[in-house]
Amino acid sequence: MGDQHSSAQQQGAQPSGADLERWRLILGPAAESCTGGLSAENAQRDAALDWLYSRDDDLGKRGVRRGGARSDGQRGADDSPSQLTTVDWLDGIHRLFPKETIERLERDAIERYKINDVLTNPDVLERIEPSPSLLKAVLRTKHLMNPQVLAAARRIVEEVVQRLVEKLSVQVRTVFTGSRTRKPSWHRRARDFDLKRTLRANLKHYQPEERRVAIERPQFHSRTSKRLEQWQLVLLVDQSGSMTGSVIHSAVTAACLHALPGLKTHLIAFDTSVVDMTSDVDDPVELLMKVQLGGGTDIARAVEYGAGLIDNPRRSIVALISDFYEGGSEARLVHLVKQLCEQGTQVLGLAALDEDANPIYDHQMAARLSGVGAHVGAMTPSHLVEFVAERLGT
């Protein structure tokens, strides 16, 4: 009886949800009545695959309808994969698939389906509105562009980077030009206007019938300049495909901090090799055009290189910007970070440096680095600027 019961259990075993989702991805929407729907992330994968491969003429010959087609063969007016733009698709596949799959999808898009509106058509690049998502797509695919297209793509890089630099530069100036004090000042600058003291000083000019205070003596704060001792900031930036946004913002942040007195800024890009890009740190556009995204990851090698740049450990900040998925020796990485922390260096482990600061990363490795003294988390560029300013003020 026991054997019969075991056999019945095996015969009645149901496939797991993950198995059903894989079958749904393989078979397409027609299989949903049997497999059920997809998770949000797998639905995005399905949309990305559908956007590309629904162009295949052989699907119609085999009676397969994809790309948001209804059972009557007509496309529905919904949010189906056909609504994706090329830029959306390029950005999406780099978030959703491993490197080998991305390379295959890009190759099929260009060679099999001749989707060339972004990659090979300079006219489209001249007309298209520059945006952060388009900048990411350009950086991820610039290795596929001919010189003419690359020249057109550079305009996108320049415009988006300029906007980012202008925005962050305002924050840098605010943080590093000195702190306000309670002492009054005769220098009348709008950013130093003291509202509370102004109201108190002019209350006698209150006009009840108009319910307002006539300001005859505006009050202003004074500022004390920060005395900056020489510090070093070493930015170690992971070039893997998932870190594209962080690579962009690292270049912009380095450019904004580079000219500050009292701060020597280094920018190092890495995958399995290490490239010192400090010579281009004052030109973030040129720097980004040289970045080669993708490849493996040897974080320990980058940390070792960065440690070799440090002159005064107690006046140094090492910001490791990575998803912490180590392709080299994990033990060596942890040991190097521990050494840096023990010698007094401020070590930041940033799983993201971008406006979203919502990363996907190796939590186990992040915890190990935190355990040996690193500050681990995610930051926006302005938060990193504030962190650096606080350390320089100590």
UniProtKB/TrEMBL annotation:
Residues 1-18 have a biased composition (Low complexity). Residues 1-21, 62-83 are annotated as: Disordered. SUPFAM superfamilies: vWA-like (SSF53300). Residues 230-389 form the VWFA domain. It holds the Pfam family VWA_CoxE. SMART domains: VWA. InterPro entries: LolB, Uncharacterised_CoxE, VWF_A, vWFA_dom_sf. This is VWFA domain-containing protein. It comes from Glycomyces algeriensis. The lineage of its organism: Bacteria, Bacillati, Actinomycetota, Actinomycetes, Glycomycetales.
